[in-house]
Write a structure and sequence with these properties.
With about 170 residues, the protein is mainly alpha-helical. It is built from 8 helices and 3 strands. The chain starts with a helix and ends with a helix.
Length: about 170
């Protein structure tokens, strides 16, 4: 679990692989109650605000995997991160028992609780420097994957949506 938490930012590029994957990873309690997608790099008991949830002894759930993720790539990277954590005895840190959506920002910062990437671009940047995650895919494949994801991000940023047009035309 320590390795998975350590490599969480880089894993995001694989487990949340599209621009839209990050629209569900929003800080704060959901107003609609429709989503409880975790954004904090933490683990805890039966608490859905954690990236890793421990629902019962002997197992844990990684809750950030998006439906668009390629399961083969995601599992390969998760296993590599976990094995690196075991080999290096990576401490996952203290268990979190709080509902993190209810904690003020100051307390999150004081506890040094890290946040998952908020965009595909941030996840790509994290994966670019994570040798464990890249080697899980093979260096050549990882570089190709990162290049394709970068192109996807740039294409997304170059498009102007109808909601942007409506907002900016009314504002300016």
């Amino acid at each position: 679990m320590g390795g998975v938490l350590k490599h969480a930012s880089a894993l995001s590029a694989l487990v949340a692989p599209t621009v839209n994957s990050y629209k569900r990873l929003v800080r704060g309690a959901p107003r609609s109650g429709a989503t409880w997608a975790p954004v904090y790099i933490t683990y805890g008991g039966s608490n859905r605000t954690q990236m890793i949830r421990i629902p019962a002894p002997g197992r844990f759930e990684i809750r950030v995997v998006d439906g668009a993720a390629n399961p083969y790539l995601a599992f390969a990277a998760i296993i590599a991160a976990g094995l690196e954590g075991i080999a290096n005895e990576v401490d996952p840190g203290p268990i979190n028992l709080d509902n993190l959506y209810e904690l003020p920002e100051e307390k999150l910062e004081a506890r040094k609780i890290r946040v998952l990437p908020v965009t595909l671009d941030e996840a790509i940047e994290a994966m670019k420097t994570d040798e464990v995650i890249k080697s899980a895919l093979g260096k050549e494949y990882a570089e190709m994957y990162l290049r394709i994801k970068r192109e996807e991000w740039l294409l997304h940023n170059r498009q102007v949506s109808s909601s942007e047009r409506e907002y900016y035309l009314a504002t300016y």
